[in-house]
């Protein structure tokens, strides 16, 4: 009798194990972030926590360092089911929710991180909701910091910029339109091709956060930095909603909580790293140039033209633009903190 009970118990145990394994889901996620970077360390820690809290029903497999190609290639592989997600720069996702580019497409819009914080508290949730309505689950935004213009030639005026060979990401049509408002014809390239473009002279000017310039070694190919925060950049972890919906509701909640917290940590660390990276660029011999006040007037005028251009072309909605302007006005007049 006891042997029969034991056999039944062992059989039930293996049945339960088999069922659990059959219900396990592996989410394959690619990124350009290199192995060993802060991003990968924190995302791997998040993946370990998700696996533990779901008893390995949800496992995340990362493909770092661009082994799956650039962001455009990653999105294509998500579409055909080869991947389920990507940690990508925001511009590559603009096709799914154009208003997500509200931070990154408006040059010289923000003057400080305090302004950014005030805006993000209200607009980040709108961006996340917008992506979810268009097929992607997003676990929070990680600010890349302020992008600065770095070049092989000194740039002080808009006319100086027009003489340069300016790079824009090849899968970001909104940024392309924004740059054209300065009456220049930019050169689209994937992020992976930028350093080679600088080395060969195909391009000689980029806009990037300091930490990105150092991590991607672009700083070795430029001499000057225009010392004015030009754009605000961010990245995100996006997972295909169809793949995510296959997880049990409880496991979905676990992943949202854990990876959301991970991206808060990445966001905070990115800011600290970018501040330090500015000092590192100085120490690397990059010359910081501050345009004179009369030149800045034209910079601000051309930047204002970008807003009108994007609105007229339907690249950004009036509601999102008006919301941003309202929040900034309230902050600058002391109505919010």
How does this model look, in words?
The protein is an alpha/beta fold. It has one domain (2-332): Bacterial extracellular solute-binding protein, family 7 (D-Maltodextrin-Binding Protein, domain 2), CATH 3.40.190. 50% of the residues lie in helices and 19% in strands. The protein contains twelve helices and nine strands. The protein has helices at residues 2-23, 38-53, 71-79, 113-132, 158-162, 173-180, 194-200, 210-215, 241-245, 249-283, 293-312, 318-332; strands spanning 25-31, 58-63, 85-89, 136-151, 167-169, 187-189, 205-208, 224-240, 287-289. Strands 1, 2, 3, 4, 7, 8 and 9 form a seven-stranded mixed beta sheet that branches. Helix 2 packs antiparallel against helix 10 (249-283), helix 4 runs antiparallel to helix 12 and helix 6 packs across helix 11 (293-312). The radius of gyration is 23 Å and the shape is globular. The termini are far apart. The relative contact order is 0.16.
CATH class: Alpha Beta
Termini separation: 73 Å
Report the portion of residues in β strands: 15-25%
The run of helices and strands is HEHEHEHEHEHEHEHEHHEHH
Spans of at least 5 consecutive residues whose pLDDT stays below 50 are 8-22
Tell me the number of structural domains: 1
Q: Might you state the CATH topology name?
A: D-Maltodextrin-Binding Protein, domain 2
In angstroms, what is the radius of gyration? 23 Å
Principal-axes shape call: globular
User: DSSP helix count?
Assistant: 12
Helix content: 40-55%
Main sheet: strands, sense, barrel: 7 strands, mixed
CATH architecture: 3-Layer(aba) Sandwich
Instruction: Let me know the CATH homologous superfamily.
Output: Bacterial extracellular solute-binding protein, family 7
Please identify the structural class as seen in this structure. Answer: alpha/beta
Mean pLDDT score: 90
Count of individual beta strands: 9
């Amino acid at each position: 009798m006891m042997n029969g009970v034991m056999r039944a118990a062992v059989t039930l145990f293996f049945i339960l194990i088999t069922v659990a394994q059959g219900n396990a889901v592996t989410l394959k996620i690619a990124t350009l972030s290199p192995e060993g970077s802060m991003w990968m360390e924190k995302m791997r820690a998040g993946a370990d926590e998700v696996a533990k809290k779901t008893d390995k029903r949800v496992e995340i497999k990362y493909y770092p360092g661009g082994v799956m190609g650039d962001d455009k290639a990653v999105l294509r592989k998500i579409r055909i089911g080869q991947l389920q997600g990507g940690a990508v720069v925001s511009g590559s996702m603009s096709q799914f929710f154009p208003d997500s580019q509200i931070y990154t497409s408006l040059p010289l819009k923000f003057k400080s991180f305090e302004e950014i914080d005030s805006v993000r508290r209200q607009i980040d949730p709108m961006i996340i909701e917008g992506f979810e309505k268009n097929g992607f689950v997003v676990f929070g935004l990680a600010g890349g910091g302020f992008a600065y213009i770095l070049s092989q030639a000194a740039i002080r005026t808009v006319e100086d910029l027009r003489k340069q060979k300016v790079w824009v990401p090849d899968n970001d049509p909104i940024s392309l339109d924004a740059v054209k408002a300065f009456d220049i014809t930019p050169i689209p390239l994937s992020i992976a091709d930028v350093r080679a473009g600088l080395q060969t002279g195909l391009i000689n000017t980029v806009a990037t956060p300091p930490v990105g310039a150092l991590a991607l070694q672009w700083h070795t190919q430029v001499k000057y930095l225009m010392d004015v925060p030009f754009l605000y950049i961010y990245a995100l972890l996006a997972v295909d909603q169809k793949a995510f919906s296959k997880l049990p509701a409880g496991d979905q909640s676990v992943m949202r909580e854990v990876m959301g917290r991970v991206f808060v940590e990445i966001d905070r660390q990115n800011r600290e790293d970018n501040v330090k990276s500015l000092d590192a660029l100085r120490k690397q011999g990059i010359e910081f140039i501050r345009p004179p006040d009369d030149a800045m007037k034209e910079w601000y005028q051309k930047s204002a033209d970008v807003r009108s251009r994007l609105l007229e072309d339907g690249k950004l909605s009036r509601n999102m633009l008006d919301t941003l302007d309202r929040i900034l006005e309230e902050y600058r007049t002391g109505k919010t903190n």
